[in-house]
Design a protein that fits this description.
Elements: E1 4-7, E2 18-23, H1 36-46, E3 53-54, E4 64-67, E5 81-84, E6 90-95, E7 99-105, E8 110-116, H2 123-135, E9 143-146, E10 156-157, H3 159-169, E11 174-176, H4 178-182, E12 189-191, H5 193-204, E13 211-213, H6 227-230, E14 238-244
Parallel strand pairs: 3-6, 4-5, 9-13
Antiparallel strand pairs: 1-2, 2-14, 5-8, 6-14, 7-8, 7-9, 10-12, 11-12
The structure holds zinc ion (ZN).
């Protein structure tokens, strides 16, 4: 059983050394608290030592934690992103329509993964600022991959949320769907979390060529878990991880 998709950072000599992965829905839910057996099966299949994985209690925040070792994470502190300079650790988050953002700075030698849904959009800023404080990292060295998430093909929102995103992350991340507007739909706007994060990344000083997009929609592709497609009661939280091979 393969059951996972992996993504690589293009155009860096470290690309083959860093694995960005996401478990497909067939592996089942991956909550660190409730689904330890599923996580253990996945880790075994990937050759990941379970005690190297770092997980959080996710709260749709913009809190990012620096991991120096795994021990302080044994009781899953609250937060939505983990960054580290320790090559032996495997930062993880769970996602199902929210975006995993994988991070690699091949110059500063730090890496991590973020959980970025609509409420948490902006968490990339926290990670960039934290890495600057911790390691003197520079945004122009950072490479990011915007992972599978619910795309504007499937993600419709109301005017209030569209206004918020337009003001916070730029005009280009929302578009009015004329058919939905004509039908009087309460959610007539299409929201692109990828565009919001691309705008944010460039405003933080990342280089355009260092912002990569997986291009996949979790709500369109049934191989992925999706809150909106599967329903809020039964959706499948997938595991997103990053590690040195
Ligand atoms: Zn879609």
């Amino acid at each position: 059983m393969t059951g996972a998709h992996t993504f690589a950072f293009p155009a860096t000599e470290l690309a083959s050394l860093i694995e960005c992965g996401i478990s497909l829905a067939a592996w089942g839910p991956m909550s660190p608290v409730k689904d330890g057996e599923n996580r253990a099966r996945l880790f075994r299949s990937r050759g990941i030592a379970p005690d190297s994985a770092v997980a959080l209690s996710q709260i749709h925040s913009r809190i990012v934690r620096v991991a120096e070792s795994a021990a302080p994470f044994s009781d899953y502190p609250e937060g939505d992103g983990v960054i580290t300079a320790n090559d032996s650790l495997v930062p993880t988050v769970t996602v199902a329509d929210c975006m995993p953002i994988w991070l690699l700075d091949p110059v500063g030698r730090w890496f991590g993964v973020l959980h970025s849904g609509w409420r948490g959009t902006g968490i990339l800023r926290t990670a960039v600022e934290l890495a600057a404080d911790e390691w003197g990292a520079k945004p122009e060295n950072l490479r990011v991959i915007l992972g599978p998430h619910i795309r504007s093909c499937c993600y419709t929102v109301d005017s209030e949320r569209a206004d918020y995103f337009r003001r916070a992350f730029g005009e280009s991340c929302v578009a009015l769907d004329p058919e939905r507007e004509a039908a009087g739909d309460r959610w007539p706007w299409r929201l692109s979390l990828a565009e919001a994060n691309r705008n944010l990344a460039l405003s933080l000083g990342l280089l355009p060529g260092h912002v990569h997009d997986s291009g996949e929609c979790t709500a369109c592709n049934p191989l992925y878990g999706s809150n909106r497609r599967e329903g809020a009661e039964t959706f499948t939280r997938m595991l997103a991880w990053i590690r040195w091979r």
